[in-house]
Amino acid sequence: DLYCNAKFKKIPNIAYKQKREIRGKYYSVFLNELIQPDSFEVLKFKRGLKITSNILQNVKNVGNKVAQWLTWDSDNNLDKSGDYYLVPSESLIRRLCDCEDHSFINASIYEEIGIAWGFFNKNIGHAFNIFINENKLYILDTVGDIAEIIEYTPTCNYEIYFIITKKNTYELKSGIEFGEIAGWQ
Fold first, then answer.
1. What does the DSSP assignment read for the chain?
2. Which of 116, 122, 72, 118 is nearest to 97 (CA)?
3. What confidence tens digit (pLDDT) does each residue in 11-46 have?
4. Average pLDDT, the chain
5. Which DSSP string corresponds to 37-74?
6. In this structure, are residues 182 and 17 in contact, taking their beta carbons and an 8 Å threshold?
């Protein structure tokens, strides 16, 4: 958050409509609430992960474990309506999930990792993770078989529109939405 507060515009946390469901009733969620470091399944999954003072190595260890454990799967294969957000426990048990679900797990496992919403290759809507190392912004993508870690630059294949941390939301660019924003009623 210190890095993001210094570099990006902090905005109110964003809740998206109908991204979760209980017994046939859909409800809205803040993206931040899906970062769940104290979840039993997350804590169980973290066991055995070697965490050191080297952030880059820690992110690589987390990312590789997640990439090897999960298989990317479209939300179309869930018995749900449209784009659906799994909580980390559901993703870890199911082992099939899409990009934002990967991101929620990574951010839940290691507090130095945030979530980015944006694009890959300028035309594919994508969620991935970000982290700071030596005052540089890096991307962690775990939808493949191994974690991909690259330094974020204006010319890389990733565009960041929003950064989500456990407590805050930051806007880097405007003009994109990943679902309908919920309002207070």
1. -HHHHHHSEEEPPPEEEEEEEETTEEEEEEGGGG--TT-HHHHHHHTT----S-HHHHHHHHHHHHHHH-EE--GGGSSSSSS-PPPHHHHHHH-EE-HHHHHHHHHHH-TT-EEEEEEETTTEEEEEEEEEETTEEEEEE-SSSS-EEEE--TTSSEEEEEEE-SS-EEESS-S--SSPBP---
2. 72
3. 988 888 888 888 889 888 888 999 999 999 999 999
4. 90
5. TT-HHHHHHHTT----S-HHHHHHHHHHHHHHH-EE--
6. yes
Q: In terms of DSSP bridges, do strands 71-72 and 96-97 run parallel, antiparallel, or are they unpaired?
A: parallel
Residue whose entry in the numeric block shows the structure tokens 């594919």: 124
Q: Is the pLDDT of residue 184 over 70?
A: no
Q: Which two tokens stand for residue 74?
A: 């479209």
Taking the whole predicted model, whether its pTM rises above 0.85 is answered as: yes
Flag whether pLDDT at 185 surpasses 50: no
Residues 170 and 124: their CA atoms lie apart, in Å, by 21
Nearest Cα neighbor of 120 from 145, 100, 91, 96 is 100
Amino acid letter at 100?
A: E
> How far are the Cα atoms of 8, 35, 113 from residue 1, in angstroms, in the given order?
10, 15, 10
